[in-house]
Design brief:
524 residues; alpha/beta; Aldehyde Dehydrogenase, Chain A, domain 1; seven-stranded mixed β-sheet; six-stranded mixed β-sheet; 23 strands; binds nicotinamide-adenine-dinucleotide
Length: 524
């Protein structure tokens, strides 16, 4: 049986919850041009608690025009890095000082456990601090050709960045794009996920208070196929940074192609955790439980496939299942809760349908449906399938919920073949105390990021991104700065100009062109 929290059965509704949220364009809160709005549900009661303005092309046009004006005429791109940095540190200060309220709203809107939402709010502040520091420390290359040239890199912001974000850890993932886009002097239009618009609506107030000039930050709520699509297809938006599903990424790729936009794509995952027989088993179990059940399993880097070496397989499965049954499912606002409510009934249905598929494909050893006592709301018991074959859908497809597949292996080669035998390549986790094997497996696994004997602990300086269907391009540290800037090469001649000369031989002169009045008018 799954452990559930003994906390009050009543849902917590935050005080002063808005009932309506608008777009933010040029510093003003505005409704959609056509007046339309969409319903937003909370994931515990699944009832509508607010209406958000539903942006369409006309709203995106207004937001991009404002962002464009702020870029071409406003102070933001022209400020000294230190000036922008000070403002962004103020953003971080405000986020930090309001972390409890942010977490309360985020947890209510998304169903994330409150303690984890709090961690994500603090991480959002840290993202701003990190990029605020980075732009001040930024140095660019200069190349000397002795006696002839000095060449240097003139780094410049690009223009209006379109930022499209998903509903899992929404506020933190928005900060991950807003931080570097703004730090480098761009202006932005943010299109947050339609399931979770609440925390995004707080950015405008935070930026205003911190001193970000009007028009630098613009926000348009709305559906992906309408507001998101219009942003991707807007000719004055040269950059799109997108995080979401791989198939949405493919669509955006195609839609952005005619405009030759800069694209950064952070997409889906089905990341393996490979546990060898010599691993510290207790640490591996703790980490792999955390890796797939934290953030409700709605986590792009979730280690949702655990590959376990045969000699420890039975013990691992038994201990893992026992611990998974004790992961506490509860109301999102309860500090004891470890798994809250999935974001939306549509997503809940998707996860539940995979659980039914898994019952045909593997051996259910924990969970398998709603936890007892949660007859309504989007609650799913942490679910573990063992003996899952690699061709199973629950092994191949991203479920994005608290569901894990465990599969045995016999050799290092087989472990790698299983790890790499899916279309995704975002993260991988390797558990072994054999140094050579650890590095060999880490380097051969097809994943953008690998953790050895660790769960997902991010160092903000390192590249973040996936390979294969998990994404294109890398953000993180200087790579984010690279994505959001042009690096113009400026070449300077020192001393004499060394021009190869053409047309000075005096031989074979061309006939003079006809006088103007005789020339073919088509060619003028
Ligand atoms: P999604 O692709 O459905 O939506 C993401 C965003 O794209 C939303 O704002 C949505 O409105 C917008 N969108 C949808 N269709 C669009 C279109 N045609 N044009 C423009 N915008 C459009 O993804 P989701 O369900 O919100 O998020 C979950 C997915 O995100 C999972 O696959 C997860 O793995 C992935 N994810 C990846 C990372 C990463 O860093 N790799 C991080 C978090 C989440």
């Amino acid at each position: 049986m799954t452990t559930t929290s003994a906390a009050p059965a009543r849902q917590h509704v935050p005080a002063e919850l808005p009932t309506r949220i608008q777009h933010v364009i040029d510093g003003e809160r505005v409704d959609s041009v056509d007046g339309s709005a969409f319903d937003v549900l909370d994931p515990v009661s699944n009832t509508t608690y607010l209406q958000a303005a539903a942006g369409k092309k006309a709203d995106i046009d207004r937001a991009v025009a404002a962002a464009r004006r702020a870029f071409t005429d406003g102070p933001w791109p022209r400020m000294l890095p230190r000036e922008r940095s000070r403002i962004l540190h103020r953003v971080a200060d405000i986020v930090e000082s309001t972390d409890a309220r942010l977490a309360e709203l985020e947890s209510f809107d998304s169903g994330l456990p409150i303690t984890q939402a709090l961690g994500q709010a603090r991480r959002a502040a840290e993202n701003f601090r990190f990029f605020a520091d980075l732009i001040v420390a930024q140095a660019d290359d200069t190349y000397k050709v002795p006696g002839r040239q000095i060449n240097y890199v003139n780094r410049k912001p690009i223009g209006v960045a379109g930022l499209i974000t998903p509903w899992n850890t929404p506020f933190m993932l928005e900060s991950w794009k807003l931080g570097p886009a703004l730090a480098t002097g761009n202006t932005v239009v943010l299109k947050p996920a339609e399931f979770t618009p609440l925390s995004a609506s707080l950015w405008a107030g935070i930026f205003e208070e911190a001193g970000v000039p009007k028009g630098v930050f613009n926000l348009v709520n709305g559906l992906g196929e309408e507001a998101g699509d219009a942003l991707v297809k807007h000719p004055d938006v040269p950059l799109i940074s997108f995080t979401g599903e791989s198939r949405t990424g493919q669509l955006i790729f195609g839609n952005a192609a005619p405009f030759l936009k800069g694209l950064s794509m952070e997409l889906g995952g089905k990341s393996p955790a490979i546990v060898f027989a010599d691993a510290d088993l207790e640490a591996a179990i703790d980490a792999t439980i955390f890796g797939v059940f934290s953030l409700n399993g709605e986590r792009c880097t979730a280690g949702s496939r655990i590959l376990v070496e045969r000699p420890i397989y039975d013990e691992f499965v038994e201990r893992y299942a026992r611990q998974a049954r004790h992961v506490v499912v509860g109301l999102p606002h309860d500090p004891a809760t470890e798994v809250g409510a999935l974001v939306h009934p549509e997503h809940f249905d998707k996860v539940m349908s995979y659980i039914e598929i898994g019952k045909e494909e593997g051996r259910l050893v924990a969970g398998g449906g709603r936890p007892a006592g949660f007859e309504t709301g989007n609650f799913v018991a942490p679910t573990v399938f063992a003996d899952v074959p690699p061709e199973a859908r629950i092994f191949q497809e991203e479920i994005f919920g608290p569901v894990v597949a465990i599969t045995p292996f016999d050799t290092d080669e087989e472990a790698l073949a299983l790890a790499n035998g899916v279309k995704y390549g975002l993260a991988a986790y390797v558990w072994t105390n054999d140094l050579k094997r650890a590095h060999n497996v880490a380097q051969a696994v097809e994943a953008g990021m690998v953790w050895l004997n660790s769960n997902n602990v991010r160092d903000l300086r390192t590249p973040f991104g996936g390979v294969k269907a998990s994404g294109l391009g890398h953000e993180g540290g200087y790579r984010s700065i690279d994505f959001y800037t042009h690096q113009q090469a400026v070449h300077i001649t020192l001393g004499e100009v060394h021009n190869p000369t053409l047309g000075r031989s005096g031989k074979a002169p061309h006939p003079a062109p006809p006088a103007d009045d005789e020339a073919d008018p088509e060619l003028r």
